[in-house]
Amino acid sequence: MIFLETDRLCLRNVAPKDAAVMYDYRNNPACARFQRGQTKDLTGIEKMVADHQADVLTTEHNCLIAVADKKTDALIGEIIVMPNDDCFSLGYTFHYAHHRQGFAFEALSALIDILHSGYPDWEFISFTDKDNMPSMNLLKKLGYTDMGYIEKLDSQMFGKWIK
């Protein structure tokens, strides 16, 4: 299922063909150094993809979204949407070969716009490693506010439309 398309990207369900690419970037130091709790072994990734390939974007449960090149359908990254108590928590990882090309901004901007238009009273949060400056700069560019360091989570918290 395609959730939405942008000029260059297609946000769709994850598919078995995505597992090898996810394995590559999840285990590359450029991506892995800032990730915690992500499945990194190929068997685990294949199971995760199988478990999420029919996800629907809803407020009832998490949704794993593949971000793919619109022309080739090659996986560029992934976004997890985690709804809870009138708040969307968004997490993302993009392939190291596609960093600094505006793909994350393009995908997240479009997704945030759709979610916010459907749920205008919901808040948005994202957490990032306190040393992940590219992610913090991306969140600020997306209109998030730095809400400070959460020691218990060992993460920098960013919020948008937080009351």
Quick overview:
With about 160 residues, the chain is of the alpha+beta class. Helix content is about 30%, strand content about 30%.
Can you walk me through this structure?
- With 163 residues, the chain is an alpha+beta fold.
- The protein has five helices and eight strands.
- A hairpin with a 4-residue loop joins strand 7 and strand 8.
- Helix 1 crosses helix 3.
List keywords for this structure.
5 helices, globular, eight-stranded mixed β-sheet, alpha+beta, 163 residues
Strand order of the largest sheet: 1-2-3-4-5-6-8-7
Oligomeric state of this protein: single chain
The proportion of residues forming helix, as a percent range, comes to 25-40%
Mean of pLDDT: 94
Blueprint (SSEs and pairs):
Layout: E1 2-5, E2 9-13, H1 19-26, H2 29-32, H3 42-52, E3 63-69, E4 75-83, E5 87-94, H4 103-118, E6 123-128, H5 133-141, E7 145-150, E8 155-160
Parallel strand pairs: 5-6
Antiparallel strand pairs: 1-2, 2-3, 3-4, 4-5, 6-8, 7-8
Helix pairs in contact: 1-3
